[in-house]
Write a structure and sequence with these properties.
By secondary structure, the protein is of the alpha+beta class. The protein is about 15% helix and about 45% strand. It has four helices and 16 strands. The strands form two sheets. The protein has an eight-stranded mixed beta sheet with strand order 2-3-4-1-5-8-7-6, covered by helices on one side. It comes from Sphingomonas aracearum.
């Protein structure tokens, strides 16, 4: 479906260390993948044999910092990349094809937050593309997407026009403004919010579903990561923890059923 997150990718300075960390905290397994024609090391992150994300070394010339990034599904990628620039964003990596994977472009929204656009191409013999990367209920997947930005109202307009997202509900957070929930069709993807202070990084953040964030917080510290917030309960009863992995890449974890 247009606008849905269909892949997540960690660009990291140390893939092996990242695999050890996330394998322990989330329970992922990993399979090497040869990107056709790229000569690049790539790792598929799996849960029960299903690919849910990827990892790759951060190239020295990369225009974006190390961290987690989302790929959003679009049907006409070239047209959408044009819409990004017309709306005040940037195209960091022009549209390019990866055989049996899809057509992708690395872009930046009007507030300077990077993400990917993708038109997936299923391998020969496979009809359609099953999205296993985002799930409100399945373990080991991203269960919540959160944008922290300089202007969440402008961002809602940008992503609404580009990806067809809507926002019909918000949670007031006092002086911090609204926590605006975002939907793609009938699916709640996450939310957007303004920076709490100019020092707070503007970025897309992702919460991976795990059984117990309290236990994970202890693991994060033991494995060389840093807990930034939590563990704590959020409205609705779920528990979250926000951390950085040992390479300094921000990541969130969530446990419990979404209300």
């Amino acid at each position: 479906m247009n606008g849905m997150p269909i892949w997540y990718e960690l660009m990291t300075p140390d893939v092996d260390a990242a695999k050890a960390f996330y394998g322990a905290v989330v329970g992922w397994t990993f399979t090497p993948f040869a990107v056709p024609g790229e000569g690049m090391e790539y790792t598929i992150v799996e849960v029960d044999g299903q690919g849910v994300a990827g990892m790759m070394p951060r190239p020295a010339e990369a225009p974006i910092p190390a961290g987690w990034y989302a790929y959003f599904h679009v049907e006409d990628l070239d047209a959408k990349a044009g819409e990004v620039t017309a709306a005040g964003g940037k195209v960091h990596m022009p549209a390019s094809d990866i055989p049996n994977v899809g057509r992708i472009a690395l872009v930046e929204d009007a507030q300077g937050v990077a993400f990917y656009l993708m038109r997936p191409s299923p391998p020969p013999g496979i009809e359609g593309v099953e999205n296993t990367a985002f799930s409100e209920t399945l373990p080991g997947r991203v269960a919540w997407n959160e944008l922290v930005t300089t202007d969440s109202k402008a961002a809602l307009g940008f992503y609404g026009d580009l990806l067809g997202w809507t926002s019909t509900e918000a949670m007031p957070m006092g002086p911090m403004g609204d926590y605006s929930f975002v939907d793609c069709g009938i699916t709640r993807l996450g939310a957007m919010m303004d920076q709490a202070s100019p020092d707070q990084p503007k970025r897309w953040g992702f919460y991976f579903s795990i059984p117990d964030v309290d236990a994970a917080a202890t693991q994060v510290a033991e494995l060389g990561g840093t807990v930034l917030m939590g563990p704590m309960e959020v409205p609705g009863g779920q528990r979250i923890v926000v951390a950085t992995d040992p390479q300094g890449c921000p990541v969130g974890f969530v446990s419990g059923e979404r209300p």
